Amino acid sequence: MLLVEWQLRESRLECPSCSSPLAQWGHGRSRMIRGARGARLLLRPRRTRCSRCRITHVLLPAVVLPRRADASRRLHDRLCCLVHRSPVLPSQRCFP
Ligand SMILES: [Zn+2]
């Protein structure tokens, strides 16, 4: 079982608006995420609903940014290419 699923079942995740426990509420829209070096990941994020304010929230893994199709590592690599003016992925240079 994934950690986030366990945390939801144990009411250990809080609503960012009111701090009440979040509950499972289906899934968000499936989306294709582009990773570093051409990797692709089909992501089906968990949707939750607050027990108090009834607002729903989509939980994303830490490597995915809201409203972006690129994983955070891919965005980092592309920004490094711009900063260093290099067409080569500079991950090794940025993270020695
Ligand atoms: Zn709430």
Ions, cofactors, ligands: which are bound? Answer: zinc ion
Q: What kind of assembly state do the chains in view correspond to? A: single chain
Order of helices and strands: HEEEEEHH
Which strand-content bin applies to the residues? 15-25%
- SS summary, helix count: 3
Largest sheet entry? 3 strands, antiparallel
How far is the N terminus from the C terminus? 34 Å
The strand count comes to 5
The gross shape turns out to be elongated
Output the strand order for the largest sheet: 1-4-5
Mean pLDDT: 83
Q: Please identify the structural class as seen in this structure.
A: alpha+beta
Computed CA radius of gyration, to the nearest angstrom: 17 Å
Q: How many domains, as an integer?
A: 1
- In helices, the fraction of residues equals 25-40%
Describe this structure in words.
With 96 residues, the protein is α+β, with helices and mostly antiparallel strands. The protein has one domain. Helix content is 25%, strand content 24%. The protein has helices spanning 3-9, 72-84, 91-94, and strands spanning 22-27, 31-34, 40-43, 46-50, 56-59. A 3-stranded antiparallel sheet has the order 1-4-5, with helices on one face. Strands 2-3 form a two-stranded antiparallel ribbon. Bound molecules: zinc ion. Zinc ion binds next to loops.
